[in-house]
Structures are given as C-alpha cells and as structure tokens.
Design brief:
3 domains, Rossmann fold, six-stranded mixed beta sheet, disordered N terminus, Elongation Factor Tu (Ef-tu), domain 3, globular
Length: about 425
C-alpha cells in the first residue's frame, strides 16, 4: 500500500501494532542504502525528494549514495558517507507500523548503536556478500543478544558485487551461522536474505536475478517477525533519550517506554533527576508521531510533558517511573558479564563507562565473584584475579554516580548493560542483584 501523505498515516495509525526494527552491521555494508531503497520503493519517499538526494550525491562525488542519504540526514554524515547518529523512519506494512532505526556500523559510533539496539524488537544484521563477516559483526551480535533483541534476520547484501552467486551467499551464510552459534542464537531458526540494497533486489520487490533464492524480501520479513510481547504488566519506566524545549508546550523529554503503560494524569517520579533523589511530577501530555495520546504502552517511542518538571530537572539517562512503584538506584550491584573485546585483562579497580538504557555512568569493578562456564552456564571453581576476552563471570560493581538499574528478576528490560572503554564495547551483561542507594 502506497501512502500519499502524512494524513494517511495518521488516519490509519491506531489499528496496527507498532514494532521497532533496527538495522545494524559493519560500516559500508549497505544498511542505510537498504533502508533508503525500502522507503523509496515502498512509496514513502516521493520521487521529487529522491531526485534532490540524487543530485546532491552526484554534487558531492558520491553517486549511488542517494538511498543512504534518506537516513543520513546530517551534513557531516553526507560528506563522510558514514552514519553517525540514529535515524528513525516510519513505514506502514500490511500488518504493522514499523519504526526503522538505522544504527551506525562505524566503530566510533557504537554508543549510538547500543541505544538503537536497546529500543528494538527485532534486527536486520547487514553483511556485504564480498567482505563477509567482519570483526565488528561479532560485537554487533553480542550487543543485540545482551540488549535482548531475540529476533535477528541476516541481510546478505551487495549480491550484485558477486554476480548474484549462490556460492558466495552460501559461504557468508555458513560463516554467520557459526558466529550465531557462539552467541547462542540458533541459525536454523534465523532467516537469511539475499539482497542488493543499491539495485533493489529482494528489498521491496522480488529479484529476477536469483532464481535459486526462495526466501522473503526485506519488506516481507518486516511482517514475518513474531509479534513482540509488550511488557505492559511491569511498572511504568520510560528512559529519556533527549530533552527538547518546545514553544507553547515547554519541556518535552523524549524516549522509549521500556515497560508498563504511561497514562495521562499519572503521578510520576523522574530518577535520579536534578536532585539525585528524584523529581515528582504528573503526566500532562503524551505525543507519538505528532499525535496526542491518552496512554502509551511499553514499546512506544514518545514525547511527554510533565507538570512540575522543567528543563533543568531532567536529562538523558534519567528514567520516568510510576511514582507508586519507582525504579531502584544502585549503591552497588552484581552482574553477569561477558567480556567481548578488551586489549589486555580486566581486574578489580577497573572503572569503565556503563551504558544502561540511555544512561552512561562510570562503575568500578570491586569483586570478581566467580567465572561461569559459557557452555553449561554453571559457576566455575577457584579464585579469579582477572578476566579476558571470551570470559563470562559474576562480578560486583560500584557506580561512581547515580545509576538507575533494576534486577533482571524484577525488570529484565531495565537490567541490561554494555561496558565501553576507549571507544570500544568491552563487555555486556545483566544485573542480577543490587544494594539500593
């Protein structure tokens, strides 16, 4: 179905379930181009807009980048041809309203990718057919896994660069399958797609160049993912991604409702907030895609105005909670951690930055309790002095600031974290226990 204008989207909006889908993958493997092609071929992007992007791409000596420009709307990104920030676009498929998140693949921008993955119900991992699996592919898979994105489809992209060869496709499929097993994802249950984002093969339209390929197009796969179960039975939590000042409305924090249901008039507490001990307020307005709502369930990305909460009270990384049942702040916490990528070893005293929902807080490793056998998941005996790549362990951490985190047994959606240091994701994990601050 082709939509002529934004009004159509509004008229249809309420009936279809919303799903957030993130596109991840190595830099230059064609994520943005694939998403841009999807927007264009499905009719969301008007012809005249595409023409403008095409002219701009040629002007910058980047012919063929016009589809990527659909998502890469920051000037610097266009000049470098690299996705820096997260870009969001809306697609209406026969079954769903899809919010597409195009996450950066470039090493410097993994921080944004973590935010993207933490908001997604499903993911497309994009891998170029010629280059195949890259060092970062493993990192992206671990992140998706730790962030709880259980549904992953693999786009083997740029099939045009390997003459649409089934052999090339099979090789990449085998390499990715081996990697999926390592991360604990069943390759038998994973959908692999043979596509060319640039040429449009199997993106929106089925390709006539790969008679051997019997799988879905990207467009079909958007509706083939399982319906995510919304954690609406848990207390309301909304992690703040940005705070805007909007004329006529005031302060508008924007973010994803992680769990529960936000309602107009609901009494809330913003934690840690400016005071560090929480700021009280009441939900005055809820808006999603420029539409006023009376309530918004888990999974929705919304903008809200909170009575009693001003611009100085709230920042990225804060969490809006149901006042009757607020989230916890940790004085210290225990977590199960998988070390993905550290140049040497990790020992007690190590203080990297933890990314939890949208917050970034340095935390110090105070104790390595025990290692875990990654194959069986059972504790291993013996004292542990340090951790290295590939190790999984139970550890204790002390936040060096105000950190909102919950135990996985209480709220798994607020328990996951990624650990970053010197521009790389070092480890990822989940909080299993904590001492409240």
């Amino acid at each position: 179905m082709v939509l002529k204008n934004i009004k159509d989207i509004k008229n249809m909006a309420p009936e279809k379930p919303v799903m957030n889908i993130v596109f991840v993958g190595h830099v230059d493997h064609g994520k943005s181009t694939t998403v841009g092609r999807l927007m264009y071929d499905s009719g969301i992007l008007p012809e005249n807009e595409m023409k403008k992007l095409k002219e701009e791409a040629i002007k910058q000596g980047k012919a063929g980048f016009e589809f990527a420009y659909v998502m890469d709307n920051i000037k610097e990104e266009r000049e470098r041809g690299v996705t820096i920030d997260l870009a969001y676009k809306k697609l209406i498929t026969p079954k769903r309203q899809i919010t597409i998140i195009d996450a950066p693949g470039h090493k410097d921008f993994v921080k944004n990718m973590i935010t993207g993955a933490s908001q997604a119900d499903a993911a497309f991992l994009t891998i170029a057919a010629k280059e195949g699996v890259q060092p970062q592919t493993k990192e992206h898979l671990w992140l998706l896994r730790t962030m709880g994105v259980a549904q992953i489809a693999v786009n083997i992209n740029k099939m045009d660069t390997v003459d649409y060869s089934q052999e090339a496709y099979d090789k990449v499929k085998k390499d990715v399958s081996d990697l999926l097993k390592v991360v604990g994802i069943n390759p038998e249950k994973t959908v692999f797609l043979a596509i060319s984002g640039l040429m449009g093969d199997n993106v929106y339209k089925k390709s006539d160049k790969m008679a051997w390929y019997k799988g879905p197009s990207v467009w079909e796969q958007l509706d083939a993912f399982d319906e995510p179960k919304k954690p609406t039975d848990l207390p309301m939590r909304m992690a703040i991604q940005d705070v805007y000042d909007i004329t006529g409305i005031g302060t508008v924090p924007v973010g994803k409702i992680e769990t529960g249901i936000m309602k107009l008039g609901q009494k809330v507490k913003v934690i840690p907030g400016r005071t560090g001990s929480g700021v009280d307020g009441e939900i005055k307005t809820i808006e999603m895609h420029h539409e006023q709502l009376t309530e918004a369930p888990a999974g929705d990305n919304v903008g809200v105005n909170i009575r009693g909460v001003g611009k100085k009270d709230i920042a990225r990384g804060d969490v809006v909670c149901d006042a009757a049942n607020p989230a916890t702040m940790a004085a210290e916490f225990t977590g199960q951690v998988a070390v993905i990528n550290h140049p040497t070893v990790i020992a007690v005293g190590y203080t990297p930055v933890f990314h939890v929902h949208t917050a970034q807080v340095p935390c110090q490793l105070t104790e390595i309790i025990h290692k875990i056998d990654p194959k069986s998941g059972q504790p291993m005996e013996g004292k542990v002095d340090f951790l290295k790549n590939g190790d999984v362990a139970m550890c204790k951490f002390k936040p060096m600031g105000n950190l909102v985190i919950e135990k996985s047994g209480v709220n798994p959606h607020m328990a996951r974290f990624a650990i970053r240091d010197a521009g790389a994701t070092v480890a990822a994990g989940v909080c299993t226990d904590l001492v409240e601050k």
